Description:
The structure is a single chain. With 259 residues, the chain is α/β, with parallel strands linked by helices. The chain has a single domain, classed as 3-Layer(aba) Sandwich (Rossmann fold), CATH 3.40.50.300. The protein has helices at residues 43-49, 80-86, 102-112, 119-132, 136-139, 152-165, 182-195, 208-214, 238-243, 248-254, and strands at 5-14, 17-27, 32-36, 60-68, 71-72, 87-90, 170-174, 200-204, 217-223, 230-237. A six-stranded mixed sheet has the order 6-7-8-3-9-10, with helices on both faces. Helix 3 packs parallel to helix 6 and helix 4 crosses helix 6 (152-165). The longest helix has 14 residues, at 119-132. The chain is globular and about 55 Å long. The two termini are 37 Å apart.
Amino acid sequence: MAKSIDVSNLDIRYGDFLAVEGVTMTIKARSVTAFIGPSGCGKSTFLRSLNRMHEVIPGATVEGKVVVDGQDLYGPDVDPVEVRRQIGMVFQRPNPFPTMSIYDNVLAGNKLNAKRMKKAEADDIVERSLRGANLWTEVKDRLGKPGMGLSGGQQQRLCIARAIAVEPQVLLMDEPCSALDPISTSAIEDLIHDLKTDYTIVIVTHNMQQAARVSDETGFFNLKAAGEPGHLVEFNPTKKMFATPDNESTEAYISGRFG
Ligand SMILES: Nc1ncnc2c1ncn2[C@@H]1O[C@H](COP(=O)(O)OP(=O)(O)OP(=O)(O)O)[C@@H](O)[C@H]1O
């Protein structure tokens, strides 16, 4: 199910503003890839270009290729809605649907994809997804209660359950722990580690310890200068990047000398 992603020569714009320039990388299947770098260097923009979420912003455009399973996601016949089903996204702030129960929150994506299903099938998806998100035992006796009644960390795991309920190939996570306390953060990090058996995971994080803990490979993004586009400076196995980075600016960033 999990797929690798081949990105080549990607330029990403907001109107005339070139936000990210010339990114080429291969994101491996069944692994965790982290993106780090100072604020404004385009990590989130690049992440959103991987499932065609970038272009929902008026005037936003992408040039270059993002190839998953031999298919260019920006090819002429590709349906962006189907791309977003195959490549799910988890956001910075947990965003369960406030009026929906835990049960319905998990199924929200499946219903959007207009699948009609029997109760038994729906029950199976809810249980499998909540187990996958490591939340089942905490909520199995209150599936009919509102998703908003959960703690922040539980809400984020509910959002992860909602993302995996549609059986995506890739999960994109944009600072998924930034609104969480250390215990919830640790639960999500454990979950990310478990999920990589089945999914290709890409995570943006400001927390370098987190990148070092959860990821197999890391991409360091930076701006050449203020007002210049963001670009990929270095992409390497995480262990190597944190021990012996290839680039001086990577070293300066991870040792806390800037950013
Ligand atoms: N909706 C938008 N419209 C116009 N410009 C935008 C928009 N979103 C982001 N940008 C610009 O694109 C550049 C990259 O922003 P982005 O949010 O991707 O960076 P980031 O590395 O994820 O930053 P942070 O770490 O602060 O979240 C910045 O110059 C930002 O101001």
